[in-house]
Amino acid sequence: MEQNNSNDPIKSPIIQEIIMSNRIGIICEEISRRMNIEPTKALELFYESQTCSDLHDKNTGLYLYGNLYVADEFMRERRGLS
Predict the structure, then answer these.
(1) DSSP state for residue 74 in the 8-state scheme
(2) Gap between the Cα atoms of 69 and 26, Å rounded
(3) pLDDT at 35
(4) Is the separation of the CB atoms in 38 and 82 below 8 Å?
């Protein structure tokens, strides 16, 4: 029996928001470790970054990549290599 995607709870905008928030927390923890800064500072820097904007923009496809790759992209952006 085929599932109806409209009833798929994973497709819910609320669930998608929770998943993205969790991912951003993991990404910022990695950034915090790499930059030796407080996690809250890493979160602030990440939210101000183009990488964060790209992560939220479905057209870039960045959301398809793993958390460590996104952290790498952020670090490249910070170094001016993007």
Answers:
(1) H
(2) 12
(3) 97
(4) no
Nearest of 23, 14, 79 to residue 49 by alpha carbon: 79
Can you spell out the DSSP letters for 9-48? GGGSHHHHHHHHHHHHHHHHHHHHHHHT--HHHHHHHHHT
Q: What is the DSSP letter of 5?
A: G
Q: Distance between CA 26 and CA 9 in Å, rounded?
A: 23
Which residue is associated with the tokens 């479905």? 58
- The string of pLDDT tens digits covering residues 28-64 is 999 999 999 999 999 999 999 999 999 999 999 999 9
CA distance 44 to 66: 20
Q: pTM score, two decimals?
A: 0.84
What is the radius of gyration, based on Cα positions, of the chain? 15
